[in-house]
Design goal:
Elements (H helix, E strand, L loop, with lengths): L7 E5 L3 H13 L3 E5 L2 H8 L6 E5 L7 H9 L8 E7 L3 H9 L4 E5 L3 H14 L8 E4 L2 E4 L4 E4 L2 E2 L4 H12 L5 E2 H9 L8 H13 L7 E4 L3 E4 L4
Parallel strand pairs: 1-2, 1-3, 3-4, 4-5
Antiparallel strand pairs: 6-7, 7-8, 8-9, 10-12, 11-12
């Protein structure tokens, strides 16, 4: 785990040497980083983890970076992920198209690793922290985080602190799949030494207390849990 920022960065680059160097450099700069060779493995990873930023090469075998960018930007769940495109030198068209489609920045290849780190830091600095949402609602379920209250319709539901934090984690990230380890870390903190069964026990109790709204929390077999967004 990288120390410092705690920001997770995904690097999509099919050249193994460049990708490994990018990951090594980002980790040395205090970020967490993971590498992917293309869109398939990237979207698989996005089911369980959401990074703050994606470094995305345009020239990829199969689905290219522009197509991947379109897919990312057309999905509301990924709308706030920063994307820096890597374009071949002199391809002004790719740069313009990338920025038009919602890329946050671009780097012309070949780029220096320190230049990459400074662009990543600059992109992250530009993002102002969001105002904390005070009201979350899904179906008949409402949470007011400024008052620490949860209601089903007009009926107030009493939750323990951990149950409340667990529900808030789901409500803040509707549709995102969480592994049990991620929920342990989010709700109990990294120092918590426990087992993932703790998460299952709390999810079951939370579902029971939420009555019919407990069905909104879906089990994703072999992975963990997610809150299903009601249409």
């Amino acid at each position: 785990m990288g120390k410092g920022s705690g920001y997770m960065i995904f690097c999509v680059e099919d050249d193994d040497d460049i990708r490994e160097l990018m990951i090594y450099t980002l980790k040395s700069a205090g970020f967490e980083a993971q590498g992917f060779t293309g869109g398939g493995s990237l979207f698989e990873a996005l089911k369980t983890e959401k990074p703050q930023l994606i470094m995305l090469d345009i020239m990829l075998p199969g689905e290219d970076g522009i197509q991947i960018l379109k897919r990312l930007r057309s999905n509301p769940a990924f709308a706030d992920i920063l994307i820096i495109m890597a374009t071949a030198k002199g391809t002004e068209y790719d740069k313009v198209v990338g920025l038009d489609l919602g890329a946050d920045d671009y780097l012309a290849k070949p780029f220096g690793m320190m230049e990459m780190v400074s662009r990543v830091k600059a992109a992250l600095r530009r993002v102002k922290p969001k105002e904390e949402t005070m009201l979350f609602q899904i179906g008949s379920l409402t949470m007011n985080s400024s008052e620490h209250t949860v209601y089903i319709g007009d009926k107030r539901i009493q939750l323990t602190l951990k149950e409340y934090e667990l529900l808030k984690t789901f409500l803040e990230n509707p549709g995102l799949v969480f592994t049990r380890d991620q929920l342990l870390q989010a709700v109990w903190g990294v120092e918590y030494v426990g087992e993932t069964r703790t998460v299952d026990v709390h999810v079951n109790t939370l579902r029971t207390k939420l009555e019919y709204c407990g069905d909104y929390i879906k089990t994703v077999r072999g992975v963990g849990y997610r809150l299903e967004v009601e249409q």
